[in-house]
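new request in #modeling-help
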Amino acid sequence: MGTGPIGVFDSGMGGLTVLREIAATLPSHDTIYLGDTARVPYGVRSAETIRRYARENAEFLLLQGISVLVVACNTATAVALDDLKERLPIPVFGVVEPGAKRAAAVAPRGRILVLATEATTRSGAYERAIHLHAPAATVVSRACPLFVPLAEEGWVDNEVAKAAANTYLGELRTGTRVDAAVLGCTHYPLLRETIAAALGGDVPLIDSARSTAEDVAAAVGAGGSGLAKRRFFVTDAPERFAAIGSRFLGAAIESVEHVDVPSLRG
Amino acid sequence: MGTGPIGVFDSGMGGLTVLREIAATLPSHDTIYLGDTARVPYGVRSAETIRRYARENAEFLLLQGISVLVVACNTATAVALDDLKERLPIPVFGVVEPGAKRAAAVAPRGRILVLATEATTRSGAYERAIHLHAPAATVVSRACPLFVPLAEEGWVDNEVAKAAANTYLGELRTGTRVDAAVLGCTHYPLLRETIAAALGGDVPLIDSARSTAEDVAAAVGAGGSGLAKRRFFVTDAPERFAAIGSRFLGAAIESVEHVDVPSLRG
């Protein structure tokens, strides 16, 4: 494997929750993050469009010399990961498989709830990945589109967030038992406690960011030297990204560079 | 003025509330609607990006032979209308001026509340337009970003919508009196009753869609012949647009065509 930085892209700032875990697991590896904020959100777009955006983001990061790519967006992973793996000359990691594997381990014969965007839900990617590891599990999917704007508004545990979580998930508390719930969108960990409360408080919640970071660490090794460089690129509105993204990263974002992707666009 | 159709564009489906009023006011005029659903939402993007998108949308509609353009998106109007007026060889109408004019007439010396997206609010466009007609009015702006995803989710009067409206607007009910409120985003009319209740129920709510339609009618004349043709184009996800957009238009959307804008993109 090359010695270039770890490339991470997401449709916006949600992937910063994944970068946060990568930085914690591999503190001396350089990273380059691309947030495609000019085209966010991916969750409501068609599969074909999402695959094109993913290819364009990957090409940009390749030009920056990355040696590993992490698709830190559940929607892009669900819809575009196979396409990227086929096309790119470097290892590519998604966030669906690690979360699915962990959910399968927690509830191999149970009822697993997947919370995700419309596009991820429609793709059936989690269902397939979970059944690969736990063929006897029952998978129930629930699209929760309001959770993304709620996380970006910083409304993660106020009355609005609680009402939204109860509207999406309330009936699951009284119906058949849920044995594990996957936070199938990188924004959702910010609403973790509100989601847990809406589900009744005792359902294991699986956040794939950490599992993904562990998979990446196993592949690239503990190497790297000294203090890691962390670069941030966005395709639009860098100030908004820096201001709101810090809550997702759990650390200040000092400097954000603006780029056009695809760079040859007229 | 030419005899081509009336062109209408919006970042997505919100502009269908404006098209609805245009169709009611000018029932025999052909219309062409473009929803830029591949790049929605505009409200969180930078001014420069929004101006580029607006130019590209206008160019597409010009190629379809429109003789009038209506920018049925408050954010694009606030940020890009002057630029479009300068560049285009046909009359261009926005949605900010009609709503501002009506608010100024309703409360010329009063306190006018403008509810809009982040980008519209930041632009100060409503404040400038209202003060042009009512220099003595006080303008208070409030960005309500959650209202757009709520309208698209169809959550316009449930507990979540009520909690969001109260969180954004509740303090305005108990503070200094509001004499008029402008729904400064084309999605907001769907939450009209919830917004009215959060403001206390007796504040005049101004929806610029109808005023805009009247301004357009005054300019193009009552002409047109027989049954109007209504074409719909989107830049992504036509099925979602047809399904959810019907609620915004107040009528079924039979057929939606998918286009790439800009069409020369690689």
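bot summary: The domain at 6-94+210-258 of chain B is CATH 3.40.50.1860 (Rossmann fold).
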